[in-house]
Amino acid sequence: MTDEQPAPAETRCGFVALVGAPNAGKSTLMNSLVGTKVSIVTHKAQTTRSQIRGVVTEGADQVVFIDTPGIFAPKRRLDRAMVQAAWTGAGDADLVAFIVDAERGLTGEVESLLEGLLNVRHPKILVLNKVDLVKRETLLALSEKINAHQRFETTFMISALTGSGVGDFLAWCMKHIPPGPWMFPEDQLTDLTLAITAAEVTREKLFLRIHEEIPYNATVETESFAVQKDGSYKINLVVYVTRDSHKKIVLGAGGQAIKAIGAEARKELMEIFEVPVHLFIFVKVRERWGDDPERYREMGLEYPHGKG
Ligand SMILES: Nc1nc2c(ncn2[C@@H]2O[C@H](COP(=O)(O)OP(=O)(O)OP(=O)(O)O)[C@@H](O)[C@H]2O)c(=O)[nH]1
Fold first, then answer.
1. 226 occurs within a structural domain
2. Structure pTM?
3. Where is this region: G5 (predicted)?
């Protein structure tokens, strides 16, 4: 990620962390900024588990957006690790964009996040999202209330979904990042490795198809990723579930569910990678993976020590 390439003179480069409550729309915003599917989006909360970066390079400026997991009151170990990763993302960034679901407004969750944000020293930007669902007066009142709580450099009212206001937000970020060499080559959109992308896309399909609590307790890992002689990718993935009964549901009768998940994931991965993809998915039972430090490392998360 540090291989610099000749860049225009007087370049700028900076990190902008996108933080907010689960479902605020951070992943949707990231995808809209980068213009492609970097981060997975579902209607269920907490789909972003570790930090995902999206890179936008325009002229001499390069902004690296960090999509952090939604911050919420953590209970399980995994939840604590996700929250930790989110605040770490905010601490590492040059700018912190606080994304608020304007339709939900000032919830208890948002209030406790605002308290946490008080400790963040970097310049902060307030981003009220989902304006397509909210009346202007409601937006203005919400903006006023949040700005009264602490100092934000500026406030944007956007719809990550329709793209309204996203360009202005990007332009502001571009203007306010520090001078410095680029961190990524001009044409690179994300530092997610291909293997992680394969696992993330498959996990999204699992989330969308299995309408039970299982996906929250499941993890997808790429076991091997090989570029074949003909240029196609051969990818072996493992879905880890915590119970045998969950495995049966993920497989479906006669393997129908996992086949459908695999077909959807493969189709999308071929669009992303632009090469033929051979995808093999195995479902394995591993009890209590949420307490296994090794799984955290593979997801790019720190294992939270302390009581589980
Ligand atoms: N109407 C509307 N819906 C939006 C907008 N932005 C996001 N959404 C929807 O809100 C839901 C959550 O969006 P995500 O982008 O996954 O939210 P997130 O903040 O990344 O969520 P976590 O990964 O759980 O932290 C999805 O169903 C999106 O389609 C918006 O501007 N307008």
1. yes
2. 0.63
3. 158-160
